[in-house]
Design a protein that fits this description.
The protein is α/β, with parallel strands linked by helices. Helix content is 30%, strand content 22%.
Length: 425
Amino acid sequence: MKKELFVNNEKVNEIMEKYPTPFHLYDEKGIRENVKRLKEAFSWNYGFKEYFAVKATPNPFIISILHEYGCGCDCSSYTELMLSEALGITGNEIMFSSNVTPKEDYIYAKKLGATINLDDFTHIEFLEKTVGIPKRISCRYNPGGIFKISNEFMDNPGEAKYGFTLNQLIEGFRILKEKGVEEFGIHAFLASNTITNDYYPLLAKVLFETAVLLKKETGVKVKFINLSGGIGIPYKPEETENNIFVIGERVREMYEKILVPEDMGDVSLYTELGRFMTGPYGCLITKVIHEKNIYKHYIGCDACAVNLMRPAMYGAYHHITVLGKENEPCNHIYDITGSLCENNDKFAIDRKLPEINIGDVLAIHDTGAHGHSMGYNYNGKLRSAEILLKQDGSFELIRRAETPSDYFATLDCFSIGKKLCNKKI
């Protein structure tokens, strides 16, 4: 089936004249239009705020676009906090949601005034000894068991390493109240990449009912509820896109049904969306450099799992367009591979595509989140550039490609490292 791409063959050829493949390309117009839709869908909630999941696309240019629309940052590490601060995003505009958290990270988060979202009951004592207990805090809830929508299995929170149990959450709120916390929030993440309008409303129901229970058990009125992420995108062409307006309206219905009657109609809602915010608005552009026929028909690209790990790591599907051949019949079957010394370094297996020739350019769809950010340097491979396709049709380099000097930079304190870093290629 055909899946539309936000960029055409002519524009990609223009970009390639200046920047060699592979590279990740992002659609500024699509990102802006999407964040406006999200804000409109939840505009009924006075305190609504999106905390963009920095881990999805940790690029300052992308984060700055989202910040123009009031988005904060969901950070999970020291360096993500650094990136946020460098962009002038501090204080309550940061939600610090981490796990197995080093003390240095808590110290930095406290310094920036970030809202700390505790992942574990024992972190209450750890945080107090490290930086003290702040006046505003959140706790991550894990209800355990299996999360289902009707009879459809969504995910297994009971196997997840994150969050407090319900009893721990109740006890944690009592302890934190005694220690002077004045503003409380709760958070949960029960399923990933859901392609259904049902997920967020059901997650909201769980969290809203938990907030009511906490008020009754502890006397604490939750100030904000963080619905986290989990709203997915249609990676496959036959999948139906989530409707954020339907989702927002159904969350509102749950809010008015559960919270409003309990005098909790002033609770602010937060989201920590990443994939939904940028995923469809990015693609990986790669050139075909080899073709191999043995027991299968392989097409070898200049990109590999270093540039996009999801297919190798999860067996994830990413649609592929052969640029310039969008209307040709998909009557050839290929494995699309990279050059790593790993047999799972494949972007597609037994994929029906038009006839591909060496020199053809492929666009791998939906890499705007968890694409470049999951890159690594196995086999000494270097991570690619990131380019922003701007609203006016121009384009801008927003991260250069790595060089061998980058790869060897952490050896620069040794003579061999200095030699390698200064070597020209």
